[in-house]
Write a structure and sequence with these properties.
The structure is a homodimer.
Chain A lengths: L5 E7 L3 E8 L4 E8 L3 H4 L2 H16 L6 E8 L8 E2 L10 E2 H9 L3 E5 H12 L8 E6 L3 E7 L2 E2 L33 H4 L1 H14 L14 H9 L3 H25 L3 E5 L7 H11 L11 E4 L6 H11 L1
Parallel strand pairs in A: 1-4, 4-7, 8-11, 11-12
Antiparallel strand pairs in A: 1-2, 2-3, 5-6, 8-9, 9-10
Helix pairs in contact in A: 2-3, 4-10, 6-8, 7-8, 8-9
Chain lengths: 315, 315
């Protein structure tokens, strides 16, 4: 009989560290946050995480033998063995965070990339529930992704599997510069920032009437709201977004052929109008074996990461 | 102690069925071919395969207990459980070929898509030897592919993982019609047929002098030969091919992040000039974690399939 009753899911972000205390059955008992101290190249972070775990163990009056371990999400590429290849967000160079945290906590640790653990969380308890082969795309300030195959994260040899935001969409579009130094990547069209960039470009290109012109500043949400209200230019922009995402997700399917796509991040709050635009273009130009996939909205929001972290341990 | 000393690798093609008799250590003891009888919707094929296996068992004077089983390659999508989703090449509809062949042979059977088993064969004994995470692309009359993750074929939920030839490269290029009914897919640029199409288009577009103009008909091999001899137009064509393949393989890496790419098929006989063109463009526009991958030529030729079939059983 297994004595393990609890586990921790710890999702390290650039500003805060989200912490979850779970039962071994995956019930979230408690969640809290601590600040991410990035000074001294992020060297205080591992100890801060160990301290908050130790405090929670003490507070709950439980013993380490009852704890399955700690799942850790990191905002950078993480290899299968827990090696962080670099994490500019936190100031980390190449370190094995799994080994470091096992040393500090005395508990088993599994580490994964933050977008990948969010995908695993959504598979387990969110929009991908009931599926084992899931591709998740997170549309926020940037575009992230996670590839779950046979119920497990595909981390990749250099921890860079699921880097969907850096798929090349428009090789010729050298104006659309990516944070990574490349250009024409999916992130420049499908992130909240990219949607605004496309909107400004389209409005500047001609004088077509559009309710978007009445706004002083445009957000991604505005584009969806005006599209829902019937504005043609806004609808064209949503269609353009659907075209980029539909094509990118079809090309991803041609590599791993998943069961379902889960769309998350702030942009996904647009809801069905977004899913419909993606699905229309996904099914437009491809081989029949890959068509007709399911598209779902993410449901866990910012908690997806801690759920996925917990799942890594219970796997 | 394991008594299994032998296994069979059977690669079913549209014209011939390639058969291999292997030791359980993966040594190819003997290979032979039988014709593919496609009449009556390919219904004779399973019995033909069972008969040739039974004949070989008798000829060698061995017993079934000594045989690990039969690995089967099929020219169509095959699910993890051995379901062929459709195989227009052979006339098959939806059948479970694993169950059918186990019934007919009385041996354990594993089935996979032909391009996927070829990729597995190249990983095991060919250009991808020593690696466990391999993406293979086969450049022949069409473009095929196989994705090997952690040493195993990624078949995909509908058996359509690794359908690399159907990645969309040029959504706007509606002239470049694909066999699948789509357009602008990788196959229309990177297959032998696609290379010839691009060459004709380029020669027709202007009057630039080119030694290719002296040829009555142009083959993909001509393009490489003239490029090696210094013809500018031919070199531009090789560069264009490298651009399509480099971009497609980079986008594949952003999904699964493999260790190595193996390039096979008739077009790959061009050798280093092809690898160099792909590698140049692969490294041109992407995130650093995905750059600097290895590119290798396939080495097993038409035997890749039977090797991969055998490997499925010995896994």
């Amino acid at each position: 009989m297994d004595m393990k009753k609890y586990c921790f899911g710890i999702d390290i972000g650039g500003t805060t560290i989200k912490c979850g205390f779970f039962t071994a059955q995956g019930e979230l008992l408690e969640k809290w946050e601590i600040p991410t101290r990035k000074e001294d190249k992020g060297s205080k972070i591992p100890q801060d995480v160990a301290d908050t775990i130790a405090a929670k163990i003490q507070e709950k009056g439980i013993v380490k033998d009852e704890i399955a371990g700690v799942g850790l999400g990191v905002p950078g590429p993480v290899g299968e063995d827990g090696t962080v290849h670099q994490c500019a967000n936190l100031g980390w160079g190449i370190i094995n965070i799994k080994n470091i945290m096992e040393e500090l906590t005395g508990l088993p640790v599994q580490a994964g990339n933050d977008a990948n653990v969010a995908a695993l969380g959504e598979m387990w308890q969110g929009g991908g529930r009931g599926f084992s082969d899931v591709v998740m795309v997170t549309l926020g300030t940037g575009v992230g992704g996670g590839v779950i195959l046979d119920g497990r994260i595909r981390a990749g040899v250099c921890g860079a599997a699921g880097e969907i935001g850096h798929i090349i969409m428009e090789e010729e579009d050298t104006d659309a510069v990516c944070g990574c130094g490349g250009h024409g990547h999916l992130e420049q069209y499908a992130s909240a920032t990219g949607i605004v960039r496309m909107a400004k470009k389209k409005l500047a290109a001609d004088d077509a009437p559009s309710s978007l012109r009445t706004l002083e500043t445009i957000t991604a949400k505005d584009v969806f709201d005006h599209a829902k209200a019937g504005d043609q230019t806004a609808n064209d922009l949503v269609d353009m977004l659907g075209r980029y995402l539909g094509m990118a997700l079809y090309n991803i399917a041609a590599v791993v052929d998943p069961q379902v796509f889960v769309i998350g991040g702030g942009v996904s709050r647009a809801g069905d109008i977004l899913l419909n635009a993606i699905e229309k273009h996904y099914n437009e130009n491809g081989i029949s074996a890959l068509l007709g996939k399911e598209f779902r909205l993410a449901t866990l929001g910012n908690d997806a990461g801690i759920f996925g972290c917990a799942r890594m341990l219970l796997d």
